[in-house]
C-alpha cells in the first residue's frame, strides 16, 4: 500500500523543503519507488532546489484540475528521483482546487510506494487538503522558540484533523548552549518524539547552489548522513556507514 507522507512546518526557513527533497532522494537511492510532490501551491520551491526547468503546463496545479494526467506532471531529476512540481504562476495558484487531494493523486499508487508531499506553511486551502491526504506527518523545526511555537500550531492542526504525527525533525542543530534542549523541545511539542536531528552543515547551502540534494552532492557530509539515516528509519532499513566515515563523523560529533 502506498504511503503518503506530508512534510510540514509552522514557518518558513526551517528547512522543510530541503528535508522533503533529501528524504525523497535518499529513499530513491536505496531502491524505493518514491515521488516528491511540491504541494506548496503558493510558494513552490522543490523544482527550484533541484534545478528542474519551469513547467507552466504539466504541473501539479493543472493535474489537480484534471487538465491532464497526474503522470504528465512528473519531472525526473538527473538522479532518477521523480518530482511533481507546482506551477510558479501566482495566477494559476489562485484558481483553487475543490476536490479531494488524495483522490486526485490516487493514480500514483500504480507506480509508487511512497509519496512525499512538501506542504505549504499557510495551513489553509490547498494546505489543508494536502494534510488531509496524509497517512503520516513529519514536523520540521529548529531548536529555537519562535520556530517551535509555529510548529506547535501546525502540529495541533494535524491532531485536529486526526492525521498521525510520526515525529519531530530538528533541523540546523549546532549543539550550542543557547539552543533549546531536547526535553524542552518535546515539552513544547506535546511530547512527540524527536526522530532525527540534522546538524547545521554549510554543505547544505553548497548543495542548494549546485541544485542537487546534499545526500547526492555531498554524500559524506554530516547532514547527508543524518538525512539518509532518517530515510532508512522511515522504511525500516538500518542506515550503514562505512568504517572510514564512521570514524570521520565521530570526530565531527555526528553519531
Automatic annotation (TrEMBL):
Residues 3-148 form the AAA domain. InterPro entries: AAA_dom, P-loop_NTPase, ParA/MinD_ATPase. Pfam families: AAA_31. GO terms for biological process: negative regulation of cell division. One of its GO terms (cellular component) is cytosol. One of its GO terms (molecular function) is ATP hydrolysis activity. This is P-loop NTPase.
